């Protein structure tokens, strides 16, 4: 659905993007993560046909940016971090204006505006002036605006920026609903915990270089090698620790209260050997679970905190 091929953008002496090869699959939510100045907004602006790359190319829905930009604009909904609003309009007037800009007329325009108001839960605000809306409601309105022409792809730059916790939860629920409608969404954000719950795949970019792209499970395996397993036994925990250390598939064992954290070697096929090994040596297993690596922890390990 979205592909870039050695996409590069140079601003005078600053290399904003360096040979970026990105792939966002149809129907997924793709989280685009990176420090400030990493190149996220530059990427999204190129995909939205608002910025020309220095070299390389980008495709949206099989169409190349620069060669078919007018056609791409009909297929995408772009929402920048801070978007312009016409503050002397009501919510309904604002959406009607943009629906008209996309060529919708008469009853169709009325129907579409009503549909996006209902989808974004702004029906009760239709006659409210835009300037009186809260930041969260304005973000909802921004999403509604991107949907009036029924795009296939949504390109969202920090849609939850500046929102309170309730508004972030509501935006997240709205994005999940939009995904169920079959839309493809690429979303940049610094709120990593929310991306972890929302996204099918993630990309981590730093200093214009894509460090990783794939599922969160793939990223976790890459960062933590063979993985980390939490283990507890009924008694003789010191002996269990010593027994696990002797196994060739175990890289390290650390003690945390009454649990053991077992780090597997990179070439360990899985962790099923752990219960077999412990039971064979006379231990009673009371806990065995794979440690879930947080996206924030992975991000800190993968990046170096360097910006372009």
Structure overview:
- Helix 3 (91-101) packs across helix 4 (106-119).
- The protein folds into 2 domains: 2-214, Rossmann fold (3-Layer(aba) Sandwich); 225-292, Alpha-Beta Plaits (2-Layer Sandwich), CATH 3.30.70.
- The chain has helices spanning 40-47, 69-75, 91-101, 106-119, 135-147, 165-180, 192-198, 216-223, 237-245, 273-280, 295-302, and strands at residues 2-11, 14-20, 23-24, 29-33, 55-60, 63-64, 76-79, 153-157, 184-188, 201-206, 209-214, 228-233, 250-256, 259-264, 285-290.
- 35% of the residues lie in helices and 27% in strands.
- The protein has 11 helices and 15 strands.
- The strands form 3 sheets. A 6-stranded mixed β-sheet has the order 7-8-9-4-10-11, sandwiched between helices. Strands 1, 2, 3, 5 and 6 form a 5-stranded antiparallel β-sheet that branches. Strands 13-14-12-15 form a 4-stranded antiparallel β-sheet, with helices on one face.
- Strand 1 and strand 2 form a beta hairpin.
- The two termini are 28 Å apart.
- The radius of gyration is 24 Å and the shape is elongated.
């Amino acid at each position: 659905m979205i592909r870039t091929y050695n996409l590069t953008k140079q601003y005078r002496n600053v290399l904003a993007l360096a040979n970026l090869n990105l792939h966002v699959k149809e129907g997924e939510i793709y989280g685009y993560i990176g420090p400030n100045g990493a190149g996220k907004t530059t990427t999204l602006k190129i995909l939205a046909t608002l910025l020309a790359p220095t070299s390389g190319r980008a495709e949206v829905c099989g169409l190349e940016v620069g060669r078919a930009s007018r056609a791409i604009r009909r297929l995408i909904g772009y929402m920048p971090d801070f978007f312009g609003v016409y503050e002397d309009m009501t919510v309904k007037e604002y959406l009607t204006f943009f629906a008209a800009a996309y060529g919708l007329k008469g009853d169709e325009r009325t129907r579409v505006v009503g549909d996006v108001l209902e989808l974004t839960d702004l029906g009760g605000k239709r006659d409210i002036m835009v300037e009186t809306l809260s930041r969260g409601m304005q973000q909802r309105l921004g999403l509604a605006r991107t949907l009036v022409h029924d795009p296939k792809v949504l390109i969202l730059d920090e849609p939850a920026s500046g929102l309170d916790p309730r508004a972030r939860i509501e935006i997240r629920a709205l994005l999940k609903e939009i995904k169920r409608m079959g839309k493809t969404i690429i979303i940049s954000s610094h709120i990593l915990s929310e991306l972890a719950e929302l996204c099918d795949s993630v990309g981590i970019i730093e200093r214009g270089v894509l460090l990783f792209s794939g599922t969160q499970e793939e990223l976790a395996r890459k960062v933590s090698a063979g993985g980390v397993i939490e283990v507890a036994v009924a008694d003789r925990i010191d002996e269990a620790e010593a027994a696990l250390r002797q196994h060739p598939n175990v890289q390290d064992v650390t003690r945390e209260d009454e649990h053991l954290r077992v780090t597997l070697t990179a070439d360990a096929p899985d962790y099923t050997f752990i219960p077999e090994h412990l039971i064979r040596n006379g231990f009673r297993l009371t806990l065995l679970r794979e440690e879930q690596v947080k996206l924030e922890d992975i991000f800190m390990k993968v990046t170096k905190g360097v910006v372009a």
